[in-house]
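call fold(seq) -> tokens
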Amino acid sequence: MVGYSPSQVFNSDQTGLVREDHSKRSLANQGTKLVFRLCQSSNATTRSITVLPMLFLDGTLGPFSYVLLGETTGQFPRFRPLPNTPNLIVRAAKSHMMTRAHMEDWIRTCVAHPNAPSRYLMILDSWP
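ret:
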């Protein structure tokens, strides 16, 4: 890391979230064959969100965080527009799992954006 300032060294890792968290436990009697649960949306218990922030060695967050939403159609619903969040790069796909194309988009929009420093040192683990 010699030759890099703490504001040029960052780590990034994917964080997975579910829209509606649920437990696999219930208060049903042991041996009950069918247990009903109530939730706002059954899709929200399985459709997840992936967030990919940049954390710099000086303790600051990168200027952008990448958010990938798993949508049934792979597109954002027209009746529910996204809020204006200049520090979030939000994308939709049929799955929240990031592909090579999403990683390229993340590098282009979050890491190598027009106001980025000319040099970074990116520390990654478990990325092929």
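The helical segments are 100-111.
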